């Protein structure tokens, strides 16, 4: 079945979302899913249906809205998980159940406490139940890279007989090297009976910085699906970055000889959206989507580029979606133009009330900032949006004083559970004073793990986009806020994180009890 079509399986909404503090609301997941569909990904892993009722609902909504991509739910190899996944993808045009169980000696002995026969039995049973819901069933041997090859051959043979159509070989802990994974795929494709009847898939983590190199080596070894995330988002050092795999196969078609369905001009908009929603900012020197990825600083390079572009450029910035900021709307734009642009950007509006509220914020921004770009519109909805967020804390008023030689002070009024509460605090800087003041009222007892400010567009009238990551007894959340005043943006981000802490957490499929 080896063709030269490479299936792009995006797991930003599942493995990406397992990153600390990257949890998204249902509405945010829908926005990302719409953008992934626009990008042209073949399979969207929309979540882990058994994690929480919220995850189940998000997958079902994505399944009923997305038409062009296959919608997939992850499930551990047990009946309850598989049935939840099967139900969640029911509305999809094309739905997939992705079930997994660990196969390495260390995982079987210490995590599962199961022997090889028990693991094979659970996997086969899981595939058969999944096939009651869909023909499109994927099986993953978790920690496959540290698993014994003869055992992998045996379990893959059994799951293919039971009806699995895609076989995934994850490098769960990012331990592989390109040479090893290339050999692993070659061996499995040779030794597993009927290996030509299924699609082989790679799923690489980036702990040694080789996730993309390993995924590409797997493709050379025969993989025809890669599992990846936008910006390489994911637990620890992350997953393989979609944009890097896609552009490597395109620019070096001579080596990989595969094609994808990805519309590359949608890469940068996808990267921006995921970064805004999760608060995981992209480093400037990141390949393809980093702000400097196409900037030619040195005089020699600029000279070369001006004489002949290809002297220093192997791909064009505009081909991956970099364009000079597009002026979108202005002070005089009306409600209809505003709504139309939000729709085009995939920012779904739930009600007239929400549209009115956003329009007021847009007008207010347009008064302070003469030019409004797409990035500004995305930032307008910064902060967790949607029905699953309880807005316990709201900013009513903020005043900060900061003068050379004096201790900065913040005076603010918060609405907490509907009641206005004033407070004043000093701090080492205006932001520090503001956060201290909020904590006096909120008493969350959480630790600040990350505080990050990013200018959304160029110019000193740019909005500042702030991410605040809080850790409350091990639960980690990220809040976002945007404003032309970065102290206000910071306060909004802190309050967003506090509001997000009041919503329920969810189970992690790889570390929770299996049965
Ligand atoms: O890394 C991993 O092994 C996974 C599996 C659940 C596919 O994410
Ligand atoms: Zn993973």
Automatic annotation (TrEMBL):
InterPro entries: 2-IPM_HCS-like, 2-isopropylmalate_synth_dimer, AIPM/Hcit_synth_CS, Aldolase_TIM, LeuA/HCS_post-cat, LeuA_allosteric_dom_sf, LeuA_bact_synth, PYR_CT. Its cofactor is Mn(2+). Mn(2+) binds at residues 15, 203, 205, 239. It catalyses: 3-methyl-2-oxobutanoate + acetyl-CoA + H2O = (2S)-2-isopropylmalate + CoA + H(+). One of its GO terms (cellular component) is cytosol. GO terms for molecular function: 2-isopropylmalate synthase activity; acetyl-CoA C-acetyltransferase activity; manganese ion binding. Keywords: Amino-acid biosynthesis, Branched-chain amino acid biosynthesis, Cytoplasm, Leucine biosynthesis, Manganese, Metal-binding, Transferase. The keyword Cell wall biogenesis/degradation does not apply. Pathway: Amino-acid biosynthesis; L-leucine biosynthesis; L-leucine from 3-methyl-2-oxobutanoate: step 1/4. Its EC number is 2.3.3.13. Signal peptide: none annotated. Belongs to the alpha-IPM synthase/homocitrate synthase family. LeuA type 1 subfamily. Catalyzes the condensation of the acetyl group of acetyl-CoA with 3-methyl-2-oxobutanoate (2-ketoisovalerate) to form 3-carboxy-3-hydroxy-4-methylpentanoate (2-isopropylmalate). Homodimer. This is 2-isopropylmalate synthase. It comes from Alkanindiges hydrocarboniclasticus. The gene is leuA.
């Amino acid at each position: 079945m080896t063709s030269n079509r490479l299936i792009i399986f995006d797991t930003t909404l599942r493995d990406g979302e397992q990153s600390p503090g990257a949890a998204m609301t249902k509405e945010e997941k829908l926005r990302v899913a719409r953008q992934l569909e626009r990008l042209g990904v073949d399979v969207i892993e929309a979540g882990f249906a058994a994690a929480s009722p919220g995850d189940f609902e998000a997958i079902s909504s994505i399944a009923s809205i997305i038409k062009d991509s296959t919608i997939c739910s992850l499930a551990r190899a047990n009946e309850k998980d598989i049935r939840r996944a099967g139900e969640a993808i029911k509305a999809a045009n094309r739905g997939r159940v992705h079930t997994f169980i660990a196969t390495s000696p260390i995982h079987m002995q210490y995590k599962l406490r199961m022997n090889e026969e028990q693991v094979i039995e659970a996997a086969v049973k899981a595939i058969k139940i999944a096939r009651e819901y869909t023909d499109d069933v994927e099986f993953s041997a978790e920690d496959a890279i540290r698993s014994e090859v003869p055992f992998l051959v045996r379990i893959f043979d059994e799951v293919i007989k039971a009806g699995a159509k895609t076989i995934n070989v994850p490098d769960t802990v990012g331990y592989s090297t390109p040479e090893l994974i290339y050999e692993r795929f070659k061996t499995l494709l040779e030794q597993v009976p009927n290996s030509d009847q299924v699609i082989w898939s790679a799923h690489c983590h980036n702990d040694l910085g080789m996730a993309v190199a390993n995924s590409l080596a797997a493709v050379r070894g025969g993989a025809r699906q890669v599992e990846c995330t936008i910006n390489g988002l994911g637990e620890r050092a992350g997953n393989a970055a979609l944009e890097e795999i896609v552009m490597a196969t395109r620019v070096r078609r001579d080596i990989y000889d595969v094609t994808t369905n990805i519309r590359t001009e949608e890469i940068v908009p996808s990267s921006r959206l995921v970064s805004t929603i999760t608060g995981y900012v992209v480093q400037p020197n990141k390949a393809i989507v980093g702000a400097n990825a196409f900037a030619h600083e040195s005089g020699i390079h600029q000279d070369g580029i001006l004489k002949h572009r290809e002297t220093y450029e192997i791909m064009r910035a505009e081909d991956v979606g970099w364009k000079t900021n597009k002026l979108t709307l202005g002070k005089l734009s009306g409600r209809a133009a505003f709504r139309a642009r939000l729709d085009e950007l995939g920012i779904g509006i739930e009600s007239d009330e929400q549209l009115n509220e956003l329009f007021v914020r847009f007008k207010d921004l347009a008064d302070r900032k003469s030019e409004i770009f797409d990035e500004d519109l995305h930032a307008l909805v910064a902060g967790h949006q949607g029905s699953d967020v309880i807005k316990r804390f709201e900013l009513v008023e903020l005043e900060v004083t900061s003068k050379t030689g004096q201790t900065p002070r913040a005076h603010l009024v918060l609405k907490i559970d509907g009641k206005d509460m004033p407070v004043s605090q000093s701090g080492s800087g205006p932001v520090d004073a503001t956060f201290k003041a909020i904590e006096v009222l909120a008493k969350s007892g959480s630790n600040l793990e990350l505080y990050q400010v990013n200018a959304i567009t160029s110019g000193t009238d740019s909005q500042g986009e702030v991410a605040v990551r809080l850790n409350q007894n091990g639960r980690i959340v990220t809040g976002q806020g945007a404003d032309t005043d970065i102290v206000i943006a910071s306060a909004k981000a802190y309050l967003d994180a506090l509001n997000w802490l009041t919503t329920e957490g969810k189970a992690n499929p790889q570390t929770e009890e299996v049965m």
